[in-house]
Design brief:
GO terms for molecular function: ADP binding. Keywords: Plant defense. It comes from Trifolium medium. This protein has one domain. Helices cover 61% and strands 0% of the residues. Helix 1 crosses helix 2 and helix 1 runs parallel beside helix 3. The longest helix is centred in the middle third of the chain and has 15 residues. The chain is elongated, with a radius of gyration of 15 Å.
Length: 64
Amino acid sequence: MQTSFPIYHLMPLASEDCWSLLSKHAFGGYNCSNRSKLEVIGKEIVKKCDGLPLAAVALGGLLR
């Protein structure tokens, strides 16, 4: 006997939420002198993440 489960449709993160996630993993809550330059680059990366949280976390970890 097979059981059916409901399908959950997940939506991508908003760019602000994706940026928050990426910056948390990239900067770890630290302030650095080049943060404004890094923020510009980071927001370009967020566009390429296309709202995928795993991509934001992985790339943020690589930038650390």
